[in-house]
Amino acid sequence: MNEIVRRAAPWWGNFAVPESQCAAFDVGPLEIRALRQPRQWVIAVERNLALTDRILVRIPVDWQEPRSTATVSRVMSRATQETLRVQPVLPDRPLVVSPPPRFAIASRETVVLYVRIPVWIRLFSGDPPALVREMPSVRMRDTWSGPTPKEGELGYAGEEHDFPSPDELPLAPHHAVCSVRVSNRAPVFLPIEEMRIPLPQLSLYSDSASRLWTSPVSLEREPDNDLAALHVSEEPPAEAQGTARISEPRLQLERSRIVRVFGSLLRPHREENP
Q1: Which of 15, 106, 118, 122 is the most exposed place for a label (fewest CB within 10 A)?
Q2: CA-based radius of gyration for the chain
Q3: Are 116 and 91 in contact (CB under 8 A)?
């Protein structure tokens, strides 16, 4: 049996786990232990939010009784198979990003904002792959985005307020980056209170450096209304080199549509409010 110890990306892929052995995947704050038994997989998951940059994959490791803080699940089958597939995937709801106060795009300007997204992780077993477990790397806060309690949708709240590129600030291993191109066609500057990014409709890519990227998104604000044209590209982001698609969208992709994406209070202003 070949021992696997991996301390750098990619932390995903197919791994051989012998029967009665355990595989360990530490990715950012997430600790996953997967024990293969003859008729079941036992999956223990814990989070340590103090650790954000670590990658450590080990097969085999000794199985230890999970602590009381762990979430443990058991998935039964007639017989387990050796192959365990680990796959990053985007979250199952839109992401609501709230820029800092008085954040705006200048008139007739186009800028690119880079939004970091904590991925979820799926475990599959066998051939054809059967889903064993799906878990978020970070539990994001729920939020409601819409003009009224009845009009809108449930999403996740983004935690960052700056938008550096991966070249300016390295990505954590459990983060994917979404490039959002915002075009302001109006003759006045455009304040942005919030943006909604349709994560379930985006693909996930890996580049040649094993960094994770989503499908690029563009938002174009016309000068004469409160709506924006949302477009999801069919191509990987231009900033990423040597990309490969590693997960498909959760939902059927609408490449273009007209949406209210910037929040109900967005208006092009000629002067700032006091």
Answers
A1: 106
A2: 21
A3: no
What Å distances lie between residue 84 and 9, 15, 16, CA to CA? 17, 5, 6
How, if at all, do strands 83-89 and 13-16 pair? antiparallel
The pTM (predicted TM-score) of the whole model is 0.90
- From CA 105, how far away is CA 190, in angstroms rounded? 5
Half-sphere exposure of 46 (CA within 13 A, CB side): 12
* Digit-coded pLDDT (tens) for 133-164: 999 999 999 998 777 777 778 999 998 788 99
**Torsion sign, CA atoms 209, 31, 23, 120:** negative
Q: Which of 179, 182, 195, 265 is nearest to 221 (CA)?
A: 182
Shortest CA distance to 122 belongs to which of 113, 135, 111? 135
Cα separations in angstroms, 129 against 21, 86, 87: 19, 11, 11
The encoded tokens of residue 76 equal: 């039964």
Q: Which two tokens stand for residue 205?
A: 């890519």
Beta bridge partners of 221: 184, 228
Q: What is the DSSP string of 225-249?
A: SS-EEEEE-SS--TT-SS-EEEE--
